[in-house]
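HOLO CASE FILE
Compound: dTDP-4-keto-6-deoxyglucose
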Amino acid sequence: MKINNTSLPDIFVLELFSFKDNRGEFVKTIHDTTFKENGLEYQFTESFYSVSEKNVIRGMHFQAPPHDHVKLVYVVTGSILDVVVDLRRDSATYGQSFQVELSDKNRKAIYIAKGFAHGFLALEDRSIVEYHCTTSQNKEAEGGILYNSFDFEWPVKQPILSVRDNEFLPLKELNTPF
Ligand SMILES: Cc1cn([C@H]2C[C@H](O)[C@@H](COP(=O)(O)OP(=O)(O)O[C@H]3O[C@H](C)C(=O)[C@H](O)[C@H]3O)O2)c(=O)[nH]c1=O
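Model generated. C-alpha cells follow.
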C-alpha cells in the first residue's frame, strides 16, 4: 500500500494492495501500521457502501464538529470521479477542490481529513463505493454545499441527484463550521 500526497494538505491518494490470480482478486483497504507510520487515523467507527448508476452525483457532504470525521473512500466495482473541497476557514486552500478517479481497475482510495466536503460522479452503472468513517452518522451535524458551486467542472451534462443534494446552499453562502 502506497500513500501519495495531493495538491491539498491532508488529502491523500492511496494505492491499495491488489493481488490477482485464477480465482479473481484480493484487495487490502486498511492497514494500521502503514496508516500509523504516515500519521493517518485508522480507527474507524462506521462503514457503509452505496450503489450508483452512471451519471449519478452524490454530494457535496460533510459532518460538522464535534461529529466531524476522517473518511476513507474507494470503489469495489465500477468507477467514479471523486471530489473534495477544503472548507477549513483558516486553510490557505479554502474553497479549493481536488479530484481523482477511483476504480476497480486502478484500485486507488482517497483519505479525506476532517474539514472537507466530499462527493463523486459515477462513471459506470452499478458503481459500488465503500466508506470508512472515524465517527458515526449524526443527522443534526450533517451538512453540504451545492455540487456545482465551486471551482470544478463536472464532466456530465445532466447529472442524477437527490432532492437534498440539489437544495444545498452554494459554497459562497456557507458559514463554514470548520
Ligand atoms: C450517510 C448515511 C445515510 N443514511 C440514510 C439516510 C438516507 O435515508 C439514506 C441515503 O442517505 P444519503 O442520501 O445521505 O446517502 P449518500 O448521498 O450516498 O451520502 C453519502 O454520500 C456522500 C458523497 C458522502 O460523502 C457521505 O459519506 C454520505 O453522506 O441513508 C444512514 O442511515 N446513515 C448514514 O450514515
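CASE NOTES: The pocket of dTDP-4-keto-6-deoxyglucose is lined by residues 48, 50, 58-59, 61, 118-120, 131, 137, 162 (CB under 6 Å). The domain at 2-173 is CATH 2.60.120.10 (Jelly Rolls).
CLOSED: yes
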